[in-house]
Amino acid sequence: MNEDLLTLCQVQKIDTEIIGNEKKRAVAPQRIEEMEGEIAQTKERLAREKEVIEELEKERRKKEQELEAEKTQIKKVEAKLHEVKTNKEYQAILKETETARTENDKIEEDIIVLMEKTEEMKKDYQSALKKLTKREKEVQEEVRELEKEIKTVDNIVAKLRQQRERLLTDVNGDLKARYNVLIERRGGLAVVNAKNGTCLGCFMNIPPQLFIEVMKNSEALTCPSCNRILCYEEEE
Q: What is the pTM of this model?
């Protein structure tokens, strides 16, 4: 096989490996971003839930103050019973007291509802908080593993690029330039096999006479359809 063509075949395999590793590496930062986004969203949701709990507790305290104020008012009104002189005044005070007690019952019911709702939300909040803490630890561990993986892949790619450049050093300048252009324009696939008269890059038929020449592997010939460099490998 032509030395330049042989070298380009080797470089193509290296480039394919580089591309595979770069795709693998691209997934890791995306996964890290997704997990960090997940944690951030959970924290935001819990922060909103905490605000709701605080508002409910504030409302409950307000109701309790109202209740205490009403009870004090009832005592004051009941104290007037000893001072009334007519039945009409007595009945008016009794009615006022009954109305106040009815209002107190309603406030007490509201307080109970608020307490139950607050306790239920607190329970859910604490449970979610524990899950968040556990998830944060899991994410931290996974992020460490992904960062380690990124570093490993970067080292592999760096070595492959060095190997690639070392091999390309001895390739004819024009051919090397053509190869690099094809790598950029043909999705990382510049050198492809020709099999049964077909280019395995674009899967178009190769003219018979050209295919005969390609089978010799004596020079870097290109596919008429996709312009990729063709090489021929006999089936084992």
A: 0.68
